Amino acid sequence: MKILVAVKRVIDYNVRVRVRADGSGVETANVKFSMNPFDEIALEEAVRLKESGAATEVIAVSIGPVQAQETLRSALAMGADRAILIQTDEAVEPLAVAKLLAAVARRESVELAILGKQAIDDDANQTGQMLAALLDWPQGTFASKLSIENGHAIVTREIDGGLETIRLALPALITTDLRLNTPRYASLPNIMKAKKKPLEVLTQAELGVDITPRLVTLKVEEPPKRKAGVKVADAAQLFDKLKHEAKVI
Amino acid sequence: MTREQMEIDCVVVGAGPSGLAAAIRLKQLKPDLSVCVLEKGSEVGAHILSGAVFEPRSLNELIPDWQAKGAPLNTAAKDDHFYYLTRSKAYPLPTPPPMHNHGNYIISLGNLCRWLAGQAEALGVEIFTGFAAAEVLYGEDGHVKGVATGDMGIGKDGKPTETYTPGVELLARQTIIAEGCRGSLTRTLFERFDLRADCDPQTYGIGFKELWEIDPAKHQPGKILHTIGWPLTADTYGGSFCYHLENHQLIVGFVVGLDYANPFLSPFEEFQRYKTHPLIRPLLEGARRLSYGARAISAGGAQSVPKLTFPGGVLVGDTAGFLNVPKLKGSHTAMKSGMLAAEAVAEALDSGAVEAASYPARLKQSWLWRELYAVRNIKPSFKWGLWPALAYAALDSFVLRGRAPWTLHHTPDHTRLKPAAASKPIAYPKPDGKLTFDRLSSVFVSNTNHEENQPAHLKLKDAAVPIAINLKLYDAPEQRYCPAGVYEIVEGPALRINAQNCIHCKTCDIKDPTQNIVWTVPEGGGGPNYPNM
Amino acid sequence: MAVLVLAEHDNSVLAAATRNTVTAAAQLATGPVHVLVAGQAASAVAAEAARLSGVEKILLADDAAYAYGLAEPLAALLISLAENYDAILAPATTFGKNVLPRAAALLDVAQISDVTAILSPDTFVRPIYAGNALATVQSTDKRKVITVRTTAFAPAADGGAAIIESLSAAIPVPRSQFVGREVTRSERPDLTAARVVVSGGRGLGSKENFLLMEKLADTLGAAIGASRAAVDAGYAPNDAQVGQTGKIVAPDLYIAVGISGAIQHLAGMKDSKVIVAINKDEEAPIFQLADYSLVGDLFVELPKLCALLSGAQG
């Protein structure tokens, strides 16, 4: 079984994003980028499946500028067998990403795709579901547990207020939630070895996919700052305000 | 678990200007050598913080076509202004000759390092970011045979977690230590090889920097402003810098000599209130603070430079202490030391010598040493106070021209604190959240993070000392000199160490009066993530 | 413009998030608002939805395939209905987020996720970078597919009388199968999903005192969070940490007790709808963004508040 894992290059989660003064977006110049944390979890899960013998190959795919090769090298250092970059300097929307990934999934005859549930830049939470739809595969989103048994994926999903378990016939799509696993560190020797693993560069034209955006970002702005509210004298007044003014209890 | 080993010709510890210059020079001289650079920051530049007005002399020598190769030197230095401040006034002073900046550039040193890293990689240098060199490795005969990276995935309790990944031994024929000011491995090497036997103690400053985006109407690219005086009193060494960078960015910064005596002094708050001076305030009103950071700098100059070589390796850059204090510059000297060391290392690797013994001689013959030697008496003269020192500096610079037949000496900074009982508390204004800030909101914009589940990387030799001595005698000065709120006295009383906030400035390692705090490297990748600093 | 809302429910009760979504739909619609209730034996839900004000029609698809809200049959159902609508909305809950992008892809539409404001029929505001920026986006797709951040829209009130129409849609054979559901692992709601979060800080002083937070949480049915300082001090477990390096929460009510409000903490809770801070230090930064600030001794005020709350419940 081949597994496809999509990895996105995003502004590092430690970096406080800053909206550009002209409202055109957030500042990206000389800002640290790294692999989307949910994608690291996806990759870790795929590598574990390979280590357990349930999978034969892990293919990491990224879509983005030439710098996304660094993200793919990290994926290779963590244990992916090979990497594919669909290189573009355009901003690619989730629907287009799903189409590109679907093309790769068909070309590579993968049986399982594991994606992060969302990227921490656009927070869209769409790509996995869209990929499943385009491939007509069943989907197990927000997974906190995954096992492969007899041609099926057993997925425990994080849903509002609890967990649910579903059983999917392979080929299938999984998106990862935080609790699925703790990704490993890429060790220094593995980073060295990753430099020699294959990394193929493709274009959307070679995959025959139109990535023209459907959404126009008119502006990006900082959220309004919260203003301080009122002082209350004691617990009784607080209780009264919460009950009758804010109506939250 | 045993550690994997990798054999290479040369390992460089630290991807700052000195380490990268050394790696580049080495590959230029010997393209076939295998050269690795280890960097504890999550990426190159993540832990780099500097003014910076950059003198391109070393860069011209290292990569003469840097302009064509797109080095990020974009803002030529223009007018130099120098003021003495009182609380409400600014008196212009003549700009001292070392502070003339014609031909220099206002840059982000972090971005220059990012660019240098690209140049190094193009030459075949392997750079590993997010890996801290945690330990020096010694051969049976006692020579340095490389370094080991720290283990990853060790929990708070010191036990391996599920992500435990042991460190790696990088076995190198030569090790270039380029840790920057007050390197933690350097400290162990000083002791092991007695490298400081014949030099003055090192003396330090703490430098703060904030990057602001200001009103374009107030922005004058290339303008340089330095001040001395307020808010510091005349017995404390220090001053400010304020540079107009590209893209409507303004750098404001402040340096305080760590030889200050009053334990109530808070360098952070001195910097914060400096920004409220009428000379600075108008620039920052309505502006947006983008980033914050702090870093110790070496200020000892020529007389504090230690022995630079030992069997198996060399020291380069600010961990040895090549900063030119009156010039307020250390990047060109750091790079030059790295280049000179690389030449000596190349020679040693060729001949099979265990020690790159020609490095000190190359240094002494270079412009770097002439530059440092000429200004060696300026900083130490400040122990007499601001005005005598300025008078002395004028004498030294204009009359003696650095050729004084004497050399003034240093005493270690940690011995300079007076007891709290003999000192006057300082009342600092509260931050307004617009121009002035508290420590935690500042650390927030430094993008600092450490893996939470790891042992504290700030170690106490004796857990009783912070309360029994530091608090009792000095009113716990670590609460004030730490620019990141790492040290807090909480009810008990007890010292709490918020190691996660640490921005790797090393001030605690320097200024702790009993030298009880030892700064060690945390798990690789931890620390600030400075953009454009 | 006709709008279809995909209802979230458990086959017996309409989820509150559906009401907020109906409000968003009403803002967007220039034509009728319909609600799709797809489930098994879900007629009570349809009846409840029919009472929502502003809704013209309820589409009830009752079939075993829809019993557990799986994405595959629901997306197939949605696309079979899509041609009658200019926009399809669902709440941005784990339910809506699971189903709607699947339908959007099948319709070849770029979904707009987590919408917090509707500026015009094709222009929307949505948070990006964990709410640290707001993007205004314009859709060029003919049909809009939108998930709605429920906290940004008021719940639709009762007062309507929609007609209920039963659907007999073709059922695709699903290749996903429901195995089981385990609602809430503990008696407490999940920190990131809870309607009410009570968080304790170092002001509580000890692990024993931190138990006061349990009492408060019990009276409110709240999840328990903690500041990093409290976690570092060992008062609360690591996974309770709210903040930039911990969990980001945005409940309807956030009560911070003995938390000074380090910016790392504020970053993790500033989007809460109503923020209450109880702290003895009136300079504490948390008061700068609290809606209700109580300066006082938490050991005095907290038991009083607990007593009032349990009195109100009992």
Structural features, described:
The complex is a heterotrimer of chains A (about 250), B (about 525) and C (about 325). Chain A has seven helices and 13 strands. With about 250 residues, chain A is an alpha/beta fold. In chain A, about 30% of the residues lie in helices and about 30% in strands. Helices cover about 25% and strands about 25% of the residues of chain B. Chain C is of the alpha/beta class and about 325 residues long. The mean pLDDT of chain C is about 90. Chains A and C meet through α3, α4, β7, β8 and β9 of A and α3, α4, β5, β7 and β8 of C. β13 (about 230) of chain A pairs parallel with β16 of chain C, so a sheet runs across the interface.
Stretches of chain B where pLDDT falls below 50 for ≥5 residues? Answer: none
Strand/helix succession of chain C: EHEHEHEHEEEEEEEEHEHEHEEH
Low-pLDDT residue intervals, each spanning 5 or more residues of chain C: none
What is the level 1 CATH name of the largest domain in chain B?
A: Alpha Beta
Cα separation of the termini of chain C: 47 Å
Sheet with the most strands of chain C? Answer: 7 strands, parallel
Could you write a compact summary of the structure shown?
The complex is a heterotrimer of chains A (249), B (533) and C (314). Chain B is of the alpha+beta class and 533 residues long.
Keyword list:
heterotrimer; A: 249 residues; alpha/beta; Rossmann fold; 9-stranded mixed β-sheet; 7 helices; 13 strands; 29% helix; globular; B: 533 residues; alpha+beta; FAD/NAD(P)-binding domain; D-Amino Acid Oxidase, Chain A, domain 2; 7-stranded mixed β-sheet
Secondary-structure map with pairings?
The complex is a heterotrimer of chains A (249), B (533) and C (314).
Chain A (H helix, E strand, L loop, with lengths): L1 E5 L2 E3 L21 E3 L1 H15 L5 E8 L3 H11 L3 E6 L6 H15 L3 E5 L10 H9 L3 E11 L2 E8 L2 E8 L2 E5 L11 H7 L4 E4 L1 H4 L7 E7 L8 E3 L2 H10 L5
Parallel strand pairs in A: 1-4, 1-6, 4-5, 5-11, 6-10, 7-10
Antiparallel strand pairs in A: 2-3, 7-8, 8-9
Chain B lengths: L3 E10 L3 H13 L5 E5 L13 E2 L2 H6 L12 E2 L3 E6 L4 E3 L12 E2 L2 H14 L3 E4 L3 E6 L5 E6 L2 E3 L5 E6 L2 E10 L6 H10 L10 E10 L10 E6 L8 E7 L4 E9 L9 H8 L6 H4 L3 E11 L10 E2 L2 E3 L15 H21 L6 H7 L2 H8 L3 H4 L4 H15 L38 H6 L13 E3 L4 H10 L3 H4 L5 E4 L3 E4 L9 H5 L5 E3 L14
Parallel strand pairs in B: 1-2, 1-13, 2-8, 5-15, 13-20
Antiparallel strand pairs in B: 3-7, 4-7, 5-6, 9-10, 10-13, 11-12, 14-17, 14-18, 15-16, 16-17, 19-20, 21-24, 22-23
Helix pairs in contact in B: 1-3, 1-7, 7-8
Chain C lengths: L2 E4 L9 H13 L4 E7 L3 H8 L6 E6 L8 H11 L5 E5 L2 H13 L5 E4 L1 E4 L2 E6 L4 E7 L4 E5 L14 E4 L9 E8 L12 E5 L6 H14 L2 E4 L1 H5 L20 E5 L5 H7 L4 E6 L12 E4 L2 H16 L1
Parallel strand pairs in C: 1-2, 1-4, 2-3, 3-10, 4-9, 5-9, 12-13, 12-14, 14-15, 15-16
Antiparallel strand pairs in C: 6-7, 7-8
Helix pairs in contact in C: 3-4, 5-8
